Amino acid sequence: MEWLLLLMVLTVFAALMSGFPVAFVLAGVSLLFAGLGTLIGGFDSGLLSAMPNRLFGIMLNQTLVAVPLFVLMGVLLEKARVADDLLENMTALFGRRPGGLGLSMILVGAILAASTGIVGATVVTLGLIALPVMLRRGYDPRLASGSVAAAGTLGQIIPPSIILVLLGDQISNAYTQAQLDQGIFSPETVAVGDLFSGALIPGLILVAAYAAYILFVAWRQPERVPGLSEAELAERPPIGRLLLALAPPVLLIVLVLGSIMGGIATPTEAAAVGAMGALVLALAKRRLSLGILQDSLTSTLRVTAMVFMIFIGASIFSLVFRGFGGDELVHDLLSGLPGGALTALLIVMVIVFLLGFMLDFIEITFVVVPIVAPVLLMMGIDPIWLGILLAMNLQTSFLTPPFGFSLFYLRGAAPASIETAQIYRGVLPFIAIQVGVLALLIVFPDLVTALPEALDVRSSR
Q1: DSSP letter at 237?
Q2: What angle do CA 436, 420, 154 make, to 5 degrees?
Q3: Residue 301 contacts residue 16 (beta carbons within 8 Å)
Q4: 297-343 pLDDT, tens per residue?
Q5: For residue 444, what is the DSSP state?
Q6: Which residue has better confidence, 306 or 202?
Q7: Directed axis angle between helix 383-396 and helix 369-378, to 10°?
Q8: How many Å apart are CA 215 and CA 224, to the nearest integer?
Q9: What's the rounded Cα separation, in Å, for the pair 448 and 393?
Q10: ∠ at Cα 435 (431, 441), nearest 5°?
Q11: If exposure means fewest CB atoms within 10 Å of the residue's CB, which of 9, 86, 122, 388 is most exposed?
C-alpha cells in the first residue's frame, strides 16, 4: 500500500497549498483514503475505533491547557503597551552610537519573547512602533525590516513559548512510544519544563548573534544604522524611568520561568500565574477596559480553537498514516541511512527546514514530528536536544519566503514606503544566523542539555 500512502501525503500537501483550512484537510483527506484503503483491502477499518479515545485524550490533556493561558498573557501584555514603554526607554539608553536603536529593538524583542511568547503580536507591535522610528533615523530599510521580523520571532525559542508547549507534548508522546516499541514498559517522560530549560541558553545565543550582527554592521557600515542626534539625546528620560519600564515584564518572566525551572509549578500553573500577572499589569497601567478584556478573550479563543482543531486533524492523519504502515516505512528509511542517527537527524532537519517554506510551524509540529520523532528517539537521540533543534528549525519557517508568517505580519504593519522585496531581502542574513546557531547546537549538544541536567540533579537532591 506504499503507493496509496504516498498519494495520501501528496494530496494533503496539494490541498494545503490551495489554502483550504489545515484541520479539515488533514482530517478529510485521511478519512477519504482510509475509506478507499478499506474498499481495496489495504487498510484495517477497525483502527478508526481508536479515534474517539484520541480526541478525548487531546481534550483532557492538562499540558495543553497552558496554550490558551500563555496566549491570553501575551494578548494582555500587548494591550498594556509594554513594548511601547520598553522601546522608548531602551532607545534613549543605547541610541547614542550607530546601531544603538537596532540593538535596543533586539533587546526589547527578547524581553517581549520571554514575557509573551506570541510571534504575531510581537512582530506587529515592533513593526508599528520601532520600524517607523528606525526609518526616520535613516536606517537601511532592508536591515530595519529584517531585524524587526527576526526580533519578533524570538518568541518561538525563548521560553515561555507556545511552540515549546506543543512540541513538548509531541516529543513526550513520541518518547513514550519509542520506549514502548523497545520493550520498556515503565517509560521515562519528558516535561514541557525540560524543553523550557533546554531552550534558555540557545535563545540567549540567538539574541547575542542578532545583536552581534547589528554591531558588525554599525562597525563596517555605520551609515546604514545611524545614531540619535544630540537634540534627541538631550530628551533622554531618567534612569529611574527605564527601571520602572523594565520591572513589570522582568518580574513576570521571573514568576513564570522561575517557578517552572525551580520545580515550584508546572507550565500550566505558571501560565495561569502569567495570565493573572498580565491582567494585574494592564490594570495597574490603567490600560484595561471591559472592551479590551473582551477583545483579549476573543483573540485567545480564536487562537486556541485553531490550534486544537489542527491538533485533532493531525491526530486523525497520524492514525491513518500508521494504519497504512507509514511509521514502519519511515523507520526503515531513516534507520537504513549510512552514518546512523546523526545522518538521520540531519536529513530530518533539512526536510523540516524545507517544509518551513510552505507550511506553518503548527502543521509541521502536529504532522511531521509524530512521524519522525519516535524513529530518531529509538536511535538514541536525546529527546530534549531533539525538541530544541526542531524548535530552532521551526523558527526559521516564520522568516523564510514566500509563506513566512512574520513576513506577512510585518507587511501588514510596515509603512507603505517599505517594499515587500526589501522585507524579503532583509531577513536573509537573519535566516543565515538562525541556521548557523542551529548547526552550533547540533555540534555542541551540551548547549541544550547542560541546564536541564543541572536542574534535574539539583531537584533530585
Answers
A1: P
A2: 35
A3: no
A4: 998 888 888 888 888 888 888 888 888 888 788 888 888 788 788 89
A5: -
A6: 202
A7: 140
A8: 11
A9: 14
A10: 145
A11: 9
End-to-end CA distance of the chain: 52
- Tell me the CA distances in angstroms from 320 to 54, 87, 126, 173, one per residue in order: 12, 49, 42, 17
Q: What angle do CA 245, 247, 253 make, to 5 degrees?
A: 120
Phi/psi of residue 41, nearest 5 degrees: 80, 20
Query: Is residue 453 within 8 Å of 175, Cβ to Cβ?
Result: no
Q: Which of 188, 189, 143, 150 is nearest to 168 (CA)?
A: 189
Q: Quick: pLDDT tens for 209-242.
A: 999 999 999 988 888 888 766 665 555 556 666 6
259: how many CB neighbours lie within 10 A of its CB?
A: 18
Give SS3 for 376: helix
Per-residue confidence at 461, pLDDT binned at 50, 70, 90? very low
Chain Cα centroid distance, residue 217: 27
Residue type, 310: I
Phi-psi region of 414 (alpha: psi -120 to 50; beta: other; left: phi over 0): beta
